[in-house]
Design brief:
Elements (H helix, E strand, L loop, with lengths): L2 H26 L4 H28 L6 H23 L4 H5 L2 H13 L14 H34 L14 H34 L7 H23 L3 H25 L11
Helix pairs in contact: 1-2, 1-5, 2-3, 3-5, 3-6, 6-7, 6-9, 7-8, 7-9, 8-9
Length: 278
């Protein structure tokens, strides 16, 4: 890492950790006012996070999208960007948005454990199609993260309604029907942007490797993940899956996204998608 990037990166991680812990505190001790404060903490972390990306760009001359560390850095930023956009637009969704923070926190932690050295961009990555591919891939990732968080909040709120002494903080959340609809919309948005990412990646692959599709492990997992979310949409539209079943599906489907972007490196030794350092 560049020196300034190092400082800003760990400032962002620390602030995200504080915000995540603050949400747990707010839920456990039923302090709804604490949630708004954590939005400001997360926003400060987001600013530091963006500064770390800018510092890395200044140090190596290209946006961070190559290697495990840069995937974690940029992917985490998109997750938080989506979360804060939702949180600042609608107060009732603040807890849903902040629920995505642990995922961003873990992505950045994973990236930091890899080798975050500064490297020049390989010639194979200098493509406009790659820009489109990465941008839409992270849009999809951010939407899927929100759907996961919405599913968790839906399940927690429904469980709270069945208690003898419900936690009043859950009254700040949207009704279950509204949450259910938002989860579906986030999945649809992620599904569409994911499709654009896959298609643009295939076009880029044709120029780079001479084939639109080569069943590379990352390609395969991206297709599997896209089909899982497509199945979720199908079950919703044609079979009427709602409420708990759909919430659980949104929670567990994100596992495919994590495997696509990060998990493949643990189980295979070679892939066309291993760029720079691992």
């Amino acid at each position: 890492m560049a020196p300034l990037e190092l400082v800003l990166f760990w400032c962002a991680v620390a602030l995200y950790a504080v915000a995540t812990g603050g949400i747990v505190y707010a839920l456990v001790f039923r302090n709804g006012r604490f949630i708004g404060r954590m939005i400001w903490v997360a926003t400060a972390g987001f600013v530091a996070h963006g500064g770390a990306i800018a510092a890395r760009y200044a140090a190596q001359g290209h946006l961070p999208w190559a290697g495990d560390y840069e995937n974690g850095l940029f992917g985490g930023w998109f997750v938080v960007a989506f979360a804060l956009f939702v949180a600042w637009r609608q107060r009732a969704l603040q807890i849903v948005a902040l629920g995505a923070l642990p995922l961003a926190f873990l992505l950045m932690g994973y990236g930091a454990m890899r080798n975050p050295v500064l490297t020049p961009l390989q010639a194979s990555l200098k493509s406009n199609w790659l820009v489109v591919h990465v941008f839409f891939a992270w849009l999809a990732f951010g939407a899927y993260a929100l759907a996961m968080s919405g599913g968790i909040v839906w399940l927690l709120k429904r469980r709270n309604l069945g208690r003898a002494q419900p936690n009043p903080i859950f009254e700040r959340f949207p009704p279950l029907e509204r949450l259910d609809e938002l989860i579906f919309r986030w999945i649809v948005f992620g599904f569409v942007t994911d499709a654009v990412a896959i298609v643009s990646g295939a076009i880029w692959a044709r120029d780079l490797w001479g084939s639109y599709w080569s069943w590379d492990p990352v390609e395969t997992w991206s297709l599997v993940t896209w089909l899982i979310y497509g199945l979720a949409i199908h079950l919703r539209v044609t079979r009427g899956w709602r409420d708990a079943r759909f919430a659980w599906l949104a929670v567990f489907a994100v596992v495919g996204v994590v495997i696509t972007f990060f998990g493949v490196t643990f189980v295979v030794e070679t892939s066309n998608h291993f760029f720079n350092v691992r």
